[in-house]
Amino acid sequence: MYKLNFLQNPNINSFELTNEIALEPLKSNILVEDFLKNFKEELKFKSLNTFLFTKDGFLSLMLKLRGTIQVSLGESQAIIEAAYEYKNLGFDIDFISINRDGQINYDEIKQSDYIFVSSYIMDTYIKIDLNRIKNISNAKIISNISSTLETKFVDIAILDSYKLTGFSFSSVILHNNIFEEQYSGSIDTTAIYLIKKSIDNFKPNSSYKNEFKSILNKEFEDNIYYFVNSDNTLPFTLHFGLKGIKARELIRTLSLGNIFVTNGEGCSLGLSKPSRILQEMGYKEFESRWALSLSFCEQLNSEDIIKIVKTISKKYRQIRALND
Q1: Which of 47, 105, 195, 198 counts the highest number of beta carbons within 10 A?
Q2: What is 205-323's CATH superfamily?
Q3: How would you write the chain as a 3-class SS string?
């Protein structure tokens, strides 16, 4: 099995719930309190809350912020949907567009109270310069750190439970006394335990990205298309398109041979709509359907990479032939 969708299917061992991590009103719950304290200190924040990583969850978060907000269009779909709903309710919110090269438009950043912007663009994994944003605006940065665990320059950090664990438990928001902290009984401690296990197992591999790209280029020649410069993406990711097919067809076929890839964030089965991010960049819908995203964690040698690329190529040509 070759798992090339690390960020959509992270390593987490099976888990067991025990009474030791249960909250009981008539005991001190020292173990849980110490765990939460250490979790916050490890990620360098003073407070945490759990919430649902959904449109409604983010809309509730925005309503609690009570300030002017900007949102990068490179964020997760749940944040974008919540932002539009927030705007429909009459609140002050602006969007930061994505340029053709995949970068956010830094010229659109202005003084506001909060900016939803992560250290990378969803789907394409283009890196965002949060330090540059800090130099432009005094806004507090709200950032999804699930694919990087980077907290530098981040004022409010979000950990997406589904991305990190594969389970749709509550997600976590870390901050420094910006929100009223939840009392222990309302915190989803199970979600935090699982997220902590996933963080402990977070071991991306950036050692063979360039070799993988080189072999892809040699095999596919004019049939491969790079929507973004791979030098500007997270070091353990690769994003490209294969012309003339729908990526989901290739993803399904490869999975039968135990090669797992994806076409973007939260689309590990290749069943979702074409990338909204690519369409924000100006690509047409049919072009967006070409897209494949790889994220690496396993140790692969040259023989493994050649085998994988040859298999992708074979399946790709079969699909092209059937479509034609």
Answers
A1: 195
A2: Aspartate Aminotransferase, domain 1 (3.90.1150.10)
A3: CEECECCCCCCCCCCCCCHHHCCCCCCCCHHHHHHHHHHHHHCCCCEEEEECCCHHHHHHHHHHHCCCEEEECCCCHHHHHHHHHHHHCCCCEEEECECCCCCECHHHCCCCCEEECCCECCCCCEECCHHHHHHHCCCEEEEECCCCCCCCCCCEEEECHHHHHCCCCCEEEEECCCCCCCCHHHCCHHHHHHHHHHHHCCCCCCCCHHHHHHHHHHHHHHHEECCCCHHHECCCEEEEEECCCCHHHHHHHHHHCCEECECCCCCCCCCCCCCHHHHHCCCCHHHHCCEEEEECCCCCCHHHHHHHHHHHHHHHHHHHHHHC
